[in-house]
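Supplementary Data S3. Sequence and structure tokens for construct A.
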Amino acid sequence: MKLYLLPMLALLGAAPAPAPAKWQRIFDGKTLAGWTPKITGRAAGEDPLHMFIVKDGAIRVSHANYTKFTGEFGHLFWKAPLKAYRIRFEYRLFGESLPGIQSWQASNSGLMFHAQAPETMRRDQDFPVSLEFQILGVPRPTREPTGNLCTPGTTVVFEGKRDPRHCILSTSPLEPVGRWVRAGLEVLPNGEVTHFIDGKAVLHYSAIELDPGDKDAQPLIAAQGGKLQLQQGYIALQSEGHQIEFRNIELQKID
């Protein structure tokens, strides 16, 4: 009798697995409520030429009031820092790049994550210390996939070793400018990160650290008492000289 009863009691007493957190829309499709711009040469919150607008249910990087690129890299930050989460969104590069860009900026944008807060950036700082889910399209001077990793002020472990490269290419196919692409990012509590394009994993790495050799990372390292490990930060949509739209931006937090 006891042999059958004990397993049954163990089953009855087992706590049910917690349900995953619900997906939350962090862009309402109508306004930029909850989002803060930071443009090179300007203070956080300033966007006098309306680089970031809402049009047809999407956040648009607009060049309507720009005739030439003169160093105005832009980032649009979501209001809350994040630690472990999944984010999914759709993007579409469109139109032409602004005159005055460098060749690597063509058909180029990104989603920054684990980024420093916008108000901590220097006024003339081009990119936040962060990781970048790099978005590329073709045609462009070099035919590269989308969903890559770039590391302004940071480093990661890739394929078993700390990788010093600024950008690491994904296994995504080439994506043409003008197509809506489904993108996703998973940041686990143990520090492992995976990039997704159209539902397929295209890049995996771990062990995010601040780079002690980067001048913008150095104050952040000092604020952490010398620790290099980077465990959380902000997400930001990027403007890098080519128009792009983002829509259906959803977030799922991971405990």
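Construct B, processed identically:
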Amino acid sequence: MPEYPDPLEELDAGLAELDTAGLRRRRRIVTTPCRPDTRLADREDAVTAFCSNDYLGLAAEPALAAAAHQGIDRWGVGSGASHLVSGHYAAHEALETRLAAFVGMDDALYFSTGYMANIGVMPALVGRGDAIFADKVNHASLVDGALLSRAELIRYPHCDVQALAARLQASTAPRKLIVTDGVFSMDGDIAPLRELLALAEAHKTWLLVDDAHGFGVLGPQGRGSLTHFGLNSPRLIYMGTLGKAAGVSGAFIAGQRSVIDWLLNKTRSYIFTTGAPPLLADALLTAVDLIEHGDARRAHLQALIARFSAGLKLKRWQLLPSETPIQPVVIGDNHETLAVSRALDAEGLWVPAIRPPTVPKGAARLRIVLSAAHSEAQVDRLVATLLRLEGALA
């Protein structure tokens, strides 16, 4: 009988390899609400966090907490079943109606998470023999959704519209789907959505936009990346995340009414899961109101972005060009990136090191995220510390 390796020994060896390569991940325990001034279980003093996707500072907003409390009083804490059995409440319905109108679509479908939305939508739209055309640096959930669909996955270089056009032209697949992030989570840049939509219309295909990092931040009243470019088309399918700028949890898909009805009937990650607690839908209805009337928050956030990018004049490291709250500083080497992250932490600044496979090999970086809840003084302190560390750690 052949001898097989002990799986526990294999795991231990694999973890040791991750340590050697500077790729092992560990969690930190947060002991305060989500806000810039944060406390962690592994240290006594507070840190200033530059890592949360709470772009508008709504996660600890008292108005959202009050709405959630009212939701608990009305609905309790659970939905009891999937949406298509008995778990679809009036709060869910009101939220979907509100979200669809807010982003200028016919209808919307509320999911428990953005990951569930992305892994479910693509298999519902395309399958074997079809083709998905995806930006090479799309979020992992979009990659996984494409693989689950069993369609051919054709990736094009990042934001390269000409390369995408050539791949679309060469494809003989009967159904095609273009998939892209609206704002790319590790680079902070915005997809060329106007050009992508033109290709979708020319080839009579869908354009699925994951706007996890654009919803609430970009466009008039924070209506997202599509309104940022003034786009409207029946070819568009829009995914917005509700755990980032909206400050709560979940996601939604919006589009033409027939598209949403089809997804309601065919999306496995929607059909076969318990509905999100309706109390969250009540909180999210308040969050959408705050986003819609949040121009002052967005103006402050944009001022902080401009202040940060103008002040951080690096010599060895590279600040990627971004007009969004995601401000990546590419360092390159995994171990140096970890060292910089630890040095920042020692000075009370929480900025995680992002390493492969999340980003390409040799492109390890600090993913600095700004929020409307940050102050100018906090941003200035981060800039000064980074400039000093760039020279000190050379």
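The chain has a mean pLDDT of 96. Residues 62-292 form a domain with the Aspartate Aminotransferase; domain 2 fold (CATH 3.40.640.10).
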